[in-house]
Every structure is written in C-alpha cells, then in structure tokens.
Design a protein that fits this description.
Blueprint lengths: L6 E4 L8 H12 L4 E6 L9 E4 L2 E6 L10 H22 L4 E5 H10 L7 E5 L16 H5 L2 H10 L2 E4 L2 H11 L5 E2 L14 E4 L2 E4 L1
Helix pairs in contact: 3-5
Length: 208
C-alpha cells in the first residue's frame, strides 16, 4: 500500500509484538481506512523494513548504530535518538490525514516530525512518567523526567486522548489538565469468543 494514508500510527518498538497497536490498526483497516504503522527496531535482529499485515502496512526504521556496539538502556536510547531523522521522514512520507502517537515517545516523535496542521491522537498505554516505584534505580529515570512538561503541552494540543483503563484516564485528566481520555481496554470481547476449550499442560487441566 502506498501513500497517501488515512491514518499513520507510530510506536517506539518494531510493532510485531505490540498486540494493542496491531489490533487497533487491524480494526481501522477492516473499517475501510488506509492505515500505516511506523515502528523502529531498537534491539535484536532487524526485521522487514516494510510489510503488509491484516490490511495495513508496517514501515520499520532500523538505526545504523547496532545493538552490539552499545547494549543496555543507554544504548537503546542512543539508537532511538540516532533514528529520529529517519523516523520523522517516514512519518511524513505517509502523508496521512490523521496521526496516532502511542505512548509519550510516540506523541513527542510526531511533534519532532513536524506534524502541526493535521489531527493528532495520543494513545497513552500507561502512566509513562510514573512507571518506576519510588527509589527505583533506572538509569534513564531522571533524564526522562525532564521531558514531563512536554506531555502536558502536547496532550493539550491533541485532537483526542485514549488510554487503557478507568484509573489511568482519571489520573491523566488530573495531571495533564485535559478532558477525561476515552478508555479503550486491552481486553477480549467475550461476546465474540468461541466455546471454551479444555487441554492439559504440566499435569493440570486448563480451560480457555
């Protein structure tokens, strides 16, 4: 599928294991929208740079700085920073009508790509800056905290905000000073599930 697209989604992983993003993109594609998902391969073996899945197109950016050259959290951050120009170009190339940023990194990446005059949707999968318990030792914790004011600025500019649960929606509305986000849960709709299936595993009977 080639540009222009109706919707461009960005997520800061290689997309393949992100169930929420894959399901959202598939649902939008099934409804007739032309959907592009832009991701970035920050670790492990590089994947296909472009592929079609469930009616939508995935574009992956792979940083030139390889994982073996700088492992760990700082290496991952450096690879993401190195990839920003290529990510921004790929986002702009989609020529989408609506842009969808997953998590704070997705939101800020759309801003860095210069998306100003098109609607932006912020999909907050978690409380990005409240992920670490008090006293937790994570090397990027305090550098990331310096970006916290940007979440409020960019979220207030967004055309809409989504999140995964009622408590997170309440918290985002309070801390960002925005209308309460729409809740789109990571859950299975049991109304469309098939009959239960029983199987054995590890000497135990499991019903799914």
């Amino acid at each position: 599928m080639t540009p222009p697209f109706d919707i461009c989604m960005f997520v800061h992983n290689d997309v393949s294991g992100d169930g929420r993003v894959l399901k959202e993109a598939a649902c939008l594609a099934a409804a007739g929208w032309r959907v592009a998902v832009v991701g970035v391969s920050l670790g492990g073996a590089p994947r296909q740079t472009e592929e079609s899945v469930s009616g939508f197109t995935i574009f992956r950016v792979t940083p030139r700085l390889l994982r073996r050259q700088m492992p760990g959290s700082w290496g991952k951050l450096l690879r993401l920073l190195v990839a920003i120009p290529a990510i921004a170009r790929q986002i702009r190339r989609t020529k989408a009508r609506v842009f969808h940023g997953n998590d704070f990194i997705g939101l800020i990446m759309l801003a860095l790509a210069g998306i100003r005059r098109r609607p932006v949707v912020y999909d907050s999968h978690e409380l990005f800056f409240d992920r670490w318990p008090k006293g937790a030792r994570y090397p990027l914790k305090y550098p990331l905290y310096t970006l916290r004011p940007l979440e409020k600025i960019l979220a207030r500019r967004a055309a809409g905000v989504l999140t995964v649960s009622e408590p997170i929606a309440d918290r985002l509305a309070q801390t960002l000073g925005i209308p309460r986000p729409i809740v789109l849960q990571n859950a299975v709709d049991l109304r469309h599930a098939g009959p239960p299936v029983a199987f054995s595993a590890g000497g135990r009977k499991i019903v799914a």
